[in-house]
Amino acid sequence: MLTATIEKIEKGERLDFEDGINLFKCHDLVLLGRIADNIRKKFHPKKIVTYIIDRNINYTNICIAKCYFCAFYREVGSPEAYLLSEENLYSKIEETLKLGGTQILMQGGLHPDLGISFYENMLRGIKSHYKIHIHAFSPPEIIHIARVSRLPIEETIKRLKEAGLGSIPGGGAEILEEDVRKKISPAKCTAEEWFSVMRIAHKIGLKTSATMMFGHVESLENRIRHILKVRDLQDETAGFIAFIPWTYQPENTRLGGEQSSGSDYLKTLAISRILLDNFKNIQASWVTQGPKIAQIALSFGANDMGSTMIEENVVRLAGACYRMRKEDIEFLIKDSGFLPVQRDTFYNKVGNDRCVVPT
Asked: Per-residue pLDDT for the chain (359 aa), expressed as one digit of tens each?
């Protein structure tokens, strides 16, 4: 019963799977938003909403996983397949730095011919030329690099860290339930492998984010178990810096289907904030939902607007083509009654912020 769940929330008790079911059965979206917003205030009592200036660099679109939900990948030999040259990569980084960026998010396909040396050389090259944080290589990429290189996962992560890797994005999580993964990404790493990468990364001192892509073939029960599994690992390692739920984009994909509604997104976001009692940061997804829904998300538990996304290719090719500049993000935050603050990867304030909270 929802009443019992709300009583547990008011007492500060940890919620369980049945509580998650009760929350999803609730049809009062405003109530869920208010509960999530109150929890956000406990983590972030000041009226601050953060964002980061970075660029999502997809170093290759060649991928053997061929996920059914993906419109980005290309097969080896395709006329549209590419692998970024060093010159192109450095040009993108230089533009990012000129725009005030502090981070590059690098992700690519599972290229069949690239071993650990390629990635080490790429990381070392970037770090030798530029002072920028590298947030890169989701768990499926790391699993793939380890397999191609015939290395243990831990050694692979350690070598990447030594070469310049600063943190790991939570991509490739989709839904961390095998029945779902077999339907949408059967050639990608398993849920246990995803958690193994994150557990090892946390153990050796690399922070990571966690994501959830929902609104395709999964059930509400799958969503709840995904959230609780991530919460369990956070209990164990405290290595996640943020949780980012976002909706599946169906255009140009083999999986097809319909896009989730704004209300489904806001409900799932709010429930994520309510259940994840050991996560400080929850990120809104303007990239998939657009600026207006993302703005509402700031009253549904989100305390971060994510990246300005100087460049983004994966979601764009699946039909979402929203774009925002730093000024646009700051306007939306201020228009919602918050103070916009630029952050780095680890949620530290960047630069001298001169914004004021609107009255």
From this structure: 899 999 999 999 999 999 999 999 999 999 999 999 999 999 999 999 999 999 999 999 999 998 888 888 899 999 999 999 999 999 999 999 999 999 999 999 999 999 999 999 999 999 999 999 999 999 999 999 999 999 999 999 999 999 999 999 999 999 999 999 999 999 999 999 999 999 999 999 999 999 999 999 999 999 999 999 999 999 999 999 999 999 998 878 889 888 889 999 999 999 999 999 999 999 998 888 888 999 999 999 999 999 887 764 545 444 444 567 889 999 999 999 999 999 999 999 997 544 333 33
Closest CA to 139 of 121, 160, 122, 120: 160
pTM, full prediction: 0.93
Structural domains of the chain in order of their starting residue, each with its CATH number: 15-342 (3.20.20.70)
Are β-strands 103-107 and 54-58 bridged in parallel, bridged antiparallel, or unpaired?
parallel
The answer to whether the annotation marks 138 as part of a ligand binding site is yes
260 annotated to bind ligand: no
Q: Is 70 within any annotated ligand binding site?
A: yes
Q: Is 185 annotated as a binding residue?
A: no
CA dist., res. 63 & res. 313, Å (int)? 14
Is 162 flagged in the annotation as binding? no
Known binder of ligand: residue 69?
yes
77-to-107, 111, 185 alpha-carbon distances in Å: 20, 12, 22
d(CA 296, CA 298): 5
DSSP string, 163-189: HT--BB--TT-S-S-HHHHHHH-TTSP
